Amino acid sequence: MAPALAVEELTWRIGGRAIVDGVAFAAAPGELLAVIGPNGAGKTSLFNLISGLTRPDSGRILLGGRDVTRLAPHRRVRHGLGRTFQTSSVFPGLTVAENVQLAAQAAVSGPIGALAVWRRIGGPARDRAADALERTRLAHRARALAGALSHGEKRKLELAILLAAGPSVILLDEPMAGMAVEEVPDLSELIRQVHRDGATILMVEHHIEVVLGLAERIAVLHHGALLACDRPAAVVDDPAVREAYLGEPL
Ligand SMILES: Nc1ncnc2c1ncn2[C@@H]1O[C@H](COP(=O)(O)OP(=O)(O)OP(=O)(O)O)[C@@H](O)[C@H]1O
């Protein structure tokens, strides 16, 4: 079976400097792979390449065996790719349900269709949205304005918006960023459940305990290059990884 996601010798340069430098790895269908690395290692840049916000200088990106390297971001979404961002991307003046229904409608009929039929969200989109709210345990907040949610609830809403599109490969960019300590286990459990439900997940995360608790393998980036990609126990014991994190707790 083709990997759900593969990057092959991916390189992105700015001003002659390789920000992402010949990175190659593959995630099997249903795998949860974490991407870690010191600040400035190139993690967000790698995500931008995979989601299509930037184009690589060389190398390929494959989704389910299909080369998507030259496709625009929205076309990659059509091929099953979903991404959350570090910054909050919800419409604060809409309710929680409306935010998710809009995303579901866009998935069902395309982004223009979602705007045109905004006053009449169709049954399939409503069902998808209700399912996404159940999965993220936000159903009880469906009528609340998104702008009134706590930070932790907003992160869940972002995940619900993502799930409403029904992606098979999910990129999570620092899902725990800005979360209160007591909110971390809840969101971790939610990500675990999304993974159990069959999604392939690539997750950038600084909380190493979250990474060790969730990831099946860990890819370590350092100065744009892939330093290691292995089982968590092997990565933690890897001398090169320890060296890269010198002065920072792993
Ligand atoms: N558009 C850009 N122009 C110039 N330099 C950039 C650009 N994007 C990223 N960089 C540089 O590339 C390097 C990698 O940045 P990137 O944000 O990908 O790292 P990161 O691993 O996500 O870091 P962090 O953990 O701090 O979020 C950094 O040195 C950054 O300054």
From TrEMBL:
One of its GO terms (cellular component) is plasma membrane. Gene3D superfamilies: P-loop containing nucleotide triphosphate hydrolases. This is ABC transporter ATP-binding protein. It comes from Actinocrinis puniceicyclus. One of its GO terms (molecular function) is ATP hydrolysis activity. Keywords: ATP-binding, Nucleotide-binding, Transport. InterPro entries: AAA+_ATPase, ABC_AA/LPS_Transport, ABC_transporter-like_ATP-bd, ABC_transporter-like_CS, BCA_ABC_TP_C, P-loop_NTPase. Residues 5-248 form the ABC transporter domain.
